[in-house]
Structures
1.
Amino acid sequence: MISIESSIIRLKDVSKKYPPDNVVFSGIDLEIEKGEFVFLTGPSGTGKSTMLRILFCAERPASGEIWVDGVALSSFSNAQVPYLRRKIGVIFQDFKLLSNHTIFDNVALSLEVIGLGKKQAEQRVMQVLEGVGLAGKTSHYPLQLSGGEQQRVAIARAVVNRPSIILADEPTGNLDLQRTEEVIMLMEELNARGATIIFATHDDRLFENTHRRVLRLLNGKIRI
Amino acid sequence: MHLGLFEGNHVSDFLQCNQDVIMTLAILCRRAFSDLRQNFCAQLITTMVVSLSILIFAFFTLLYFNLQHFVDRFGSELGLVVFLTEDTPKDRIPSLYQKLTGLSEVEKVTYISSEEAFGRLEKFLKDEKEVLEGVDPQFLPPSFEIQVNRAVFQLKRIKQLAGEIDKWPEVSKVRFGQEWIDRLYVFSGLVRTIVAVTGILLLFTAAFVVTNTIKLTVYARQEELKIIRLVGATNMFIQGPFLVEAFLQGLLGSSLALGVVFACYRFVQGLEAKSELLRGVNICFIPWQYTVAIIASSVLLCVLGTVLAMRRSLRL
């Protein structure tokens, strides 16, 4: 049992439906501990991405309440949402990189939005790109990189402003086995450094032999 | 591997400290100029659309002001002719002259005696002046030619003035080309209405074209805006550079258009000096207050167009 004090994400009776009456999930109660690494799984179309989108406020739940680090998301006005997002790093299956910006600029974007000084930002971007093994490709453009490299850029962008929560939405969906392993290792590394990670995937092989908690989203309910 | 991450700051603390982060004008302009460089073609097309729209509108405005200028000048040059009765004693002339020059609407008064009027008629008839042989040179009545003050020129006021002078006992008739002025005013009123209506329609068309061109450039960058939102950009961070770009587009587009109109104006002015036909037309440029208003409206139009086009992009 996870205590409320140590939970960084808490959902109480959360449901989501799309008009007219398409219920994605309902009555979801969930607590995720600080520094935990959980897998969110389930067949395609069960609402894994929707769940993550609700967590970073790209969508609002139909009912229920969500707390992130003790703050109720319902209390966030639309103008406050960007400040929450700076605390949550999001990684997507399709990388979502700016194709007309260099790798350096893509990663620096997360720091630019918080108004970090140029010198400080440069230092931090280089540190993170070194960490993901792309220090030599800072002036490349996303389309000049392989899928695995692009995903590493996306990870670098998600973590460069030191978020305490990382939401990964099928980050290995477009990658081969070797690149998938690299991404998993990076995630493990980030988790070891204190980040709470929710890793959404429909690929059972990724958590077959793991000791991590696996949340299964099936028929609108979560089964642990 | 060292990522140097996660000092464990709380969301609540983070929210509090980041509320104070204000996007400076320097960051905003840097982003705007970076966008301008990256989307140079799209920005250029938008600026040209703004410029062309303002150009058409400015030409109509120029036409409107020149028409008004022409009507006012033509009307004021017509003046009044006050004919005196035959039995007006000559010694009354100076006092009548004084009375007329004392009127605020009057700029210049010239006395034309019967003899002088006869001389003018002879000149006018040239070779056929024999028809005047034996005619008494006093048969034409003496008159005053009045040039109206341009600053106070108004058809209503001239009519009123003519009516007042006509009541003087020494005056037999006052003529001021009323028919001409009336026709001219009806014609110029009609043209003015057409120009004004066309101008307003053009303004709406320009507003529509400009807003939609901006919308297209914003839509073309939807994906980019989504990504910027994902990493925690505020609305100001997203919208700010677009607003700076819109401001520049409005300013440059309208300035360019007015520059072209001004060049055309100078060209016609040059022709006016050379051509006998155009001499005296006295073409005028759009008054500076209206020039400033056109530039300000263009900037406002572009900025508002951007705000409207971006409304959807700024949702969650």
2.
Amino acid sequence: MRRAAPEINAGSMADIAFLLLIFFLVTTTMDVDSGITRRLPPPVDTPDDVRIKERNVLNVLINKNNRLLVNGLPGDISNLKDAAKEFMTPHFPDNPNYPEVEEVTIPLIGTIYNSKGVISLKNDRGTSYDMYIQVQNELARAFNEIKDELSVSRFGTKFENLPADKKEAINDAVPVRVSEAEPENIGEN
Amino acid sequence: MSKFKSSKTKGTPAISTSSLPDIIFMLLFFFMVTTQMRETSLRVKVKLPIATEIQKLDKKSLVSFIYIGPPTNTTMYGTESRIQLNDQYARVSDVPEFIATEREARNEADRNFLTTSLKVHKDTKMGVVTDVKQELRKASAFRINYSTLKGVAKK
């Protein structure tokens, strides 16, 4: 008499499947697309010279050797953020060393002083992309810190924790004014 | 009668199907992992720079990618940074057409929200990036995103 084959114990099958699942979960890297978002300005046919008062502009130049020139003085990436932040923070009463201020009324915040400053960024064709991104990052960091400070003083919490309407108010109060100069061919790349 | 019954039950027992779902799950996971979401294969090396102040790109379907970097096959194409659109190398002059086709592929309501993600190798010179940006401006693709990796904030 042939013995019936005993039923295979399938209880551990689920464990094996889970083991495999966990293995793949750990080894797969989900590439989340993230980066610095910017809006390009619309094209201009004839670059009309928009004259902005010199005190309202912070000139940031990057040359082809990745060296910085901030308002005519050699700068360093490590203190660019502080320089940009100091420049963009509204100073009242009017101080000739800093950009002009204007009064703006924004819902949820009220009337505040807003700096008229603009950061003008200009790079060479030979500048490395890495350096360019670092400068953009430092400038973004300066603006984010100003936003955070305003947010803490007005709403008592950091910018990222605010509800959407208050975020919008802060964004209106602290406009990110980074202008990129029309490209010119200066150095060879 | 009882003799018949016993002979029937003595045959091979029914194959256990309780493990079938697990096998199916295994296969599912296998395919989930091996499926490449990206429909283009990279022909340029893209080592992204690191930044801290980054935002996530929320609507993946509204993003088109432009890759710029040194070719993967350096013996054939040299080391100078090249632009890759879709699946092939392109010139700067091809960018407007690329944007036009990308727009065409989206439905009308979403076209204005199309973001162009620039995936640029960190050692690329800005010259080619600036050229691409100028073309994007002309093609009115104003929303751009410089793709970066998340870094640790310096104090």
